[in-house]
Design brief:
Number of strands: 2
Largest sheet: 2 strands, antiparallel
Oligomer: single chain
Shape: globular
Strand content: under 5%
Structural class: mainly alpha
């Protein structure tokens, strides 16, 4: 579970109310199943992930939390280097590679981000975006257990990105180390998003539809997908934010 993927799923919480009640969406043919998984994830977050993230914040100094987050961001840049190359975008690929080289050496394996996330010239990318670039558009919306909003395409992309991290970057580590890396990344990401879940529940009469529509709109900015709304004007996030 990468930081970039989960933040993408929750960024829409800062948008205005996208939906006041449950609404149909052509990108969500699996809605009954997705709603069941959403409810499971909500309970798992309330009883496990959120308390763990709050404990992590309480006992871990801010500089350490920042270093952990930087480390995983650096791994994402390694993946972005490859994916931008697969998308035939040489300049962003070289930019991501340059960040990796600098932060992995002078930044001590990425613990210190010498280039800065806020000064990033090109956003991180992933294999889901690569598949979209290759022509797989408008994949069905899919809520993954413990992971959250995704699509069939992006779920496959996440598996590929995770395999790249484990088999190439980590050089096929022991399963215990692999599990520790995944858990640490998830906790770090969840800690950085504490409070966002309350915004969703307070803003929407139907948090599931709010989550789905917001995630699809944000994701469409990088994949070129349709958002599934019948009204094209609803797809323009920039207008909604004004």
């Amino acid at each position: 579970m990468t930081a970039g993927k989960i933040k993408l799923a929750l960024l829409f919480s800062f948008l205005p109310l996208l939906t006041a009640c449950a609404s149909s969406n052509s990108r969500d043919p699996l809605e009954p199943m997705n709603r069941a998984v959403y409810q499971f994830n909500d309970k798992a977050d309330a009883y496990v992930m959120k308390p763990v993230a709050e404990g992590y914040r309480a006992i871990t100094p801010q500089p350490v939390r920042t270093g952990v987050r930087n480390f995983f961001n650096n791994l994402d840049d390694m993946s972005s280097t490859v994916n931008y190359a697969l998308q035939a975008k040489p300049l962003p690929s070289f930019y991501s590679f340059s960040r990796v080289v600098l932060n992995s050496t002078a930044g001590i394996l990425g613990v210190f981000d010498l280039t800065g996330e806020k000064q990033r010239r090109f956003a991180k990318t992933d294999f889901g975006e690569t598949l979209a670039r290759w022509g797989w558009k408008n994949s069905a919306y899919l809520v993954l257990p413990l992971y959250g909003p995704s699509t069939v395409r992006d779920g496959i992309g996440e598996v590929a990105d995770t395999a790249f991290r484990n088999e190439i970057i980590y050089s096929n580590p022991h399963s215990d180390r692999r599990s520790l890396s995944g858990v640490t990344s998830a906790i770090s990401t969840r800690e950085s998003l504490l409070g966002v879940e309350d915004t969703i529940k307070d803003a929407a009469l139907d948090p599931y539809a709010y989550t789905r529509d917001g995630w699809l709109q944000v994701r469409a900015k990088t994949t070129g997908d349709d958002t599934g709304h019948s009204n094209p004007e609803d797809d323009n996030i920039d207008d909604l934010m004004q």
